[in-house]
Amino acid sequence: xxxxxxxxxxxxxxxxxxxxxxxxxxxxxxxxxxxxxxxxxxxxxxxxxxxxxxxxxxxxxxxxxxxxxxxxxxxxxxxxxxxxxxxxxxxxxxxxxxxxxxxxxxxxxxxxxxxxxxxxxxxxxxxxxxxxxxxxxxxxxxxxxxxxxxxxxxxxxxxxxxxxxxxxxxxxxxxxxxxxxxxxxxxxxxxxxxxxxxxxxxxxxxxxxxxxxxxxxxxxxxxxxxxxxxxxxxxxxxxxxxxxxxxxxxxxxxxxxxxxxxxxxxxxxxxxxxxxxxxxxxxxxxxxxxxxxxxxxxxxxxxxxxxxxxxxxxxxxxxxxxxxxxxxxxxxxxxxxxxxxxxxxxxxxxxxxxxxxxxxxxxxxxxxxxxxxxxxxxxxxxxxxxxxxxxxxxxxxxxxxxxxxxxxxxxxxxxxxxxxxxxxxxxxxxxxxxxxxxxxxxxxxxxxxxxxxxxxxxxxxxxxxxxxxxxxxxxxxxxxxxxxxxxxxxxxxxxxxxxxxxxxxxxxxxxxxxxxxxxxxxxxxxxxxxxxxxxxxxxxx
Amino acid sequence: xxxxxxxxxxxxxxxxxxxxxxxxxxxxxxxxxxxxxxxxxxxxxxxxxxxxxxxxxxxxxxxxxxxxxxxxxxxxxxxxxxxxxxxxxxxxxxxxxxxxxxxxxxxxxxxxxxxxxxxxxxxxxxxxxxxxxxxxxxxxxxxxxxxxxxxxxxxxxxxxxxxxxxxxxxxxxxxxxxxxxxxxxxxxxxxxxxxxxxxxxxxxxxxxxxxxxxxxxxxxxxxxxxxxxxxxxxxxxxxxxxxxxxxxxxxxxxxxxxxxxxxxxxxxxxxxxxxxxxxxxxxxxxxxxxxxxxxxxxxxxxxxxxxxxxxxxxxxxxxxxxxxxxxxxxxxxxxxxxxxxxxxxxxxxxxxxxxxx
Lengths: 541, 357
Description:
A: mainly alpha, B: 2 domains, 35% strand
């Protein structure tokens, strides 16, 4: 049972990967000779630029809040996570609305300061550098979060020793803290870059051609499905490289602990101008990545609420809520089935199938969309042919272009989140609990219902919530897989933006950001708990 | 009536053979202790009995009916075996109260009947006051008793206990052990208890099965194992021994305290001689008095009801060795005094030398 589920979830990834080996067709050769070089170059620029951006912001902010004491540190500790709540496409639309020719900034420069030639020298946000800066602003929290935990958990002794050996704070950072935290930082970097490659809304809107826009255009615009699948397969190569990078960093993270005792490090107390600089440095990413776009969205929503917040808007919200809730419940149920299957019998085959099923999170939504639609179309065609041959009726599309396909795509993409959370929940319960319940007359499913589920209510809830929020934000898979005329908050935001109605897009975008704050709250609660004197993830009980 | 029987049971984890052709029967009302060093396979035997490990080879029957038979691919799941099981870490359900834990395995009863049953059992174990408490608020000894009550509540015919007292500190352990013994005896269930502590096994077991490398080396009453060990390992496991190496000459082996006749071993066999400390009886002698087996007192200590005397013999092959002797009562000869030692052959064991591996 669990194995079948794992295989079904792993199917889209397998379908796309197999396309690497399909012989190239004419369209593919055309793509390869015209646009492919541009896709690769842009993707590499994004990897390089976003990588540098998230590293410099994430590591420096993490070091400041973990190692130094300055006014507002405790607030910034969690506030620096807030940009997590803003999807890249939302921040792209918002800053375009703020900074383009008709936006408030240029208008103020032109009319307020009388600079008539502002349009000539003002940088164009809708460009590759603009996309890189904006993505870095919302993706740095991945690096920040993991690096902060790593700095936090570093052995007191290692730092102390380096100080007694004559290293100043600066040198002990470069020679001790940073090397010790490197696996965590690389892990965060890999996650941020996966998200950057997943992005569709930003690059599409800014006219920067990458694999995701290429897949979308080839699939929907040109209707060339095999070529789109091969683009998806090529993008997977980038992703596999990042997955390997992340796995390697995770493997070496085990050796990170240099001391067994966990102590709260005494922080460097900053005073005077250095303290103000630290406060300002932390305030900058929070303001640029969250506060300014959120404020703009609130103002625009208030301005346009009369026209945009209507019955149609409620239907969008209801649609988003419906698919997100269904996907969340299914993701928790599937994760529970897989994780319990592993707990009962950890065979190498089962473990491998579960790992592959959990890969979805690394893989861009557009790739997963392709991987879901190809087998579903095959099933529909087979079913239709069979029905026509034997019953004389056409069944049409049973799976493709339905909510079933959409929810399945979400499940494939976000199962990893629920799987990790549920597996961690199981891991905290000793297998003796299962044995005790079995010996007292409970069947396997009885153990799950009467003992394990009540013990991990919190983990299950968290898992469902995280999937719910990610589904609300997800754009490219929704655009490709959704049924005809089925709109969600994310697709409506996108459609407004494509029509250059950035102000009108604000109400839907604001709703997405508001929901996105939920996981930030969960993360900040984990941080608050860890502050009580124990490393994150270890609950006292 | 045989409550549980193992026949030719073998079990391996990957390459490691944990249980090797194991056979044992436990009668109703009997307590059998499985004892042995860590890694000897005793816990695996318990898990196979409970159905928590899939049987790989052999047969297990409970009250006359086969519950697992590897040759017939029969293996009843744990919930259909009706065994009571107490774990080393107790494994109490943290989301249920004490009463909820104890009542967990009771089914097919009305709520009132179940409550009555649970509170009677809790009273019997001095836990009545804690019925609505949650496990984490209880002390280790109380948690242990809740675990025992939970296993006994469905009235199983067989109770399995895996190192049930190892989590308790020494002072509490004796008391809880005693209480457990009386409770198990009063219920007439067959009990299989796993422990690594020989003293615990001797205190609780009607019979003891000594295991090593997945096999039973010796099985019998505690007195059998202590007084008639089958080999040097068994002798050393159940009590201190003074161990010396010797060779059979003229139907006897020489020791510093006189020869021991050995009829069964051929001339020239290398042997291990194991002398229990209480086999050495020491008499104080005045200066200048002749003694057949003199020894010098290196130290003497009182350990409550017995005294331990450390001895060194003056001459011969054993001059560098020192021996422990256990005397009942207070017997503390001064250091460096000379004493006369006599040997009780019934507490001395001779085995052919085992070659060091």
